[in-house]
Amino acid sequence: MAGVAVMVIDVQREFFCGPSASYRSDEVIGGINRLTAAARLALAPVFFVQHDGAPGAEVALGTEGWQLHPALLRTGDDCVVHKTVGDSFHETTLDGQLERLSIDRLLVCGYATEFCVDTAARRAVTLGYRTTVVSDLHTTQQRAHLMPEQIVAHHNWVWANSSMAGNRVCVSPLSDVLVREFA
């Protein structure tokens, strides 16, 4: 029997704490905790994807900034996948773990909308997963050319209106995802 899994991408201290915290950091983490709690109640696996930066990088492996955010509610049953590039599937164990668990649907959330979340969603679709980005549970920071709320809105629109390998990324708010997947 196929199932659903939650994928939380790069919710690390460096991106969510301090003066350069991501847009809507507290709301995003709170919503992620609601989503992962519902998934666990339904016995759906939760994957935390953590970026292992190179020495000197803002999320260099083992540094304080690299740590998953302490406000994330995690259990010993959750899986942690380590990546070194923006693609959560590239040279990681993620696809194999999902296959072993007979997962065919992914609920994607986390950081950064225009980088790792976008790459993960697109890659998941091309690998054949029915993929939903939780529209109010991904975030980014202000960039030189756009405000974070513009980046989030733009990507929600692009995902909802793009076809990749004949499939689409579904874009839904947390309230709809909870009802559709875990009610």
List the helices and strands and how they pair.
Blueprint: E1 3-9, H1 13-16, H2 25-41, E2 46-51, E3 79-83, H3 94-100, E4 103-111, H4 113-126, E5 130-139, H5 148-160, E6 163-164, E7 167-172, H6 174-182
Parallel strand pairs: 1-2, 1-4, 2-3, 4-5, 5-7
Antiparallel strand pairs: 6-7
CATH class: Alpha Beta
What percent of residues adopt helix (DSSP H or I)? 25-40%
**CATH-assigned homologous superfamily:** Isochorismatase-like
The helix/strand order is: EHHEEHEHEHEEH
Notes on the protein architecture:
- This protein is α/β, with parallel strands linked by helices.
- The longest helix has 17 residues.
- It is globular.
- The mean pLDDT is 96.
What's a concise summary of this model?
The chain is an alpha/beta fold. The protein contains 6 helices and 7 strands, in the order βααββαβαβαββα. The chain has one domain: Rossmann fold, CATH 3.40.50.850.
List keywords for this structure.
7-stranded mixed sheet, Rossmann fold, 7 strands, alpha/beta, 183 residues, 6 helices
